[in-house]
Amino acid sequence: MKTYILPIFYAVLIAISLIGHVYAQKAWVGRTTGGLPYIEYSGGMVRLGADKMGFIDTDVRVVVLDSVENRYKIRLSKNWEAYIPKHFVIRGGQLSDSVTSADVLSGTWHLSAKDNYDVLTISLPDRLPYRSYQVVEPNKIIVDVFGATSNTTWITQLKKARIVKSVYREQLEKDVYRIHIDLEGKQNWGYSINYDNTSLRISVKHAPAKKGIKNLFIAIDPGHGGNAKGAVSPNGTEEKIYNLKFAKELQTLLHKKGVKNVYLTRTEDIDIATTDRVLKLREVKPDLLISLHLNASSRTEVKGVSTYYHHNGSRGVSKYILDEMLDLGLNEFGLIGNFNFLLNSPTEYPNSLVEIAFLSNPEDEQRILNEKFHKQTADKIYKGIVKWLKEVQ
């Protein structure tokens, strides 16, 4: 009979060593920081980054489980994990802050109105991570707070609220607290989520007081600029130059049609970081954002127009603009949802990215170079917005 005592002994030592290594990598508590911190669903990576779960406020507590290249893997709740870029996290607490978070109980709710917003405030003992998403039919906002358990025994709802019909809570999991916000009308006009001390505050924007495009505050984002040239055609046509031409043509048309409030994220050939554009848009608070870009492909035969949105509340305006653009005889490249572009990610206002045509396609490029096409594009985007407004107002 052979003796296996020695190999078994070494196997046990290796197993103990591996277990020790796992436990040596202890979780730690961090706090979010930076201008626009966001969390992601997975560790995957594509051209525009991993699928964003959404922006979150600063000083939000996150439990860091692991380091994965330039991101941290974090625990949101018992059954939920996510990822966050490392530069958005600083160390800020001990494990005694509670990794399981089972003792984080929700408090009172208060719904009122201030300025042009209905404001729902929910009392919590700490700043916890959250995500939100939009439902179109029926029109509502859903917010999940991770690591919280319901201890809410009353919800105060004042008659001042204009766009929020009702609010209620659901304990989705033991430590996932869901907030339901039912809205009036067909259109979600935007909302923001942040913390006031440790109370979660959800500010839901009222619909424009007056109907029609003349009463909208429209922002236009000409993509790229400066050193960020964007796509460049084989003939040397630079996307950044023509994005601005299309934007100014749209601005001119909107003014002619009586739209007084139009804002451009850039008015000259300068490079403005996408993060800075989003932060500025948060300040100016438009009713609608239209981003303008030109597409490109490694295959020169690919051509056409496409519109992009991230949140469901922006699907309608994107669809109407695409329908109008197709009347110009452009090929249909598609209506693209859940798009991960940073300018599509804010929830504060409906927004749409228009990829007007392909610079890499000779036929599309000739259109792009034609000033008549600039005017036609502006007209079609304008008509798309008008048709969308007739549907939702």
From TrEMBL:
<dbReference type="InterPro" id="IPR002508">
    <property type="entry name" value="MurNAc-LAA_cat"/>
</dbReference>
<feature type="domain" description="MurNAc-LAA">
    <location>
        <begin position="278"/>
        <end position="386"/>
    </location>
</feature>
<dbReference type="InterPro" id="IPR050695">
    <property type="entry name" value="N-acetylmuramoyl_amidase_3"/>
</dbReference>
<keyword id="KW-0378">Hydrolase</keyword>
<dbReference type="InterPro" id="IPR021731">
    <property type="entry name" value="AMIN_dom"/>
</dbReference>
<protein>
    <recommendedName>
        <fullName>N-acetylmuramoyl-L-alanine amidase</fullName>
        <ecNumber>3.5.1.28</ecNumber>
    </recommendedName>
</protein>
<dbReference type="Pfam" id="PF11741">
    <property type="entry name" value="AMIN"/>
</dbReference>
<dbReference type="Pfam" id="PF01520">
    <property type="entry name" value="Amidase_3"/>
</dbReference>
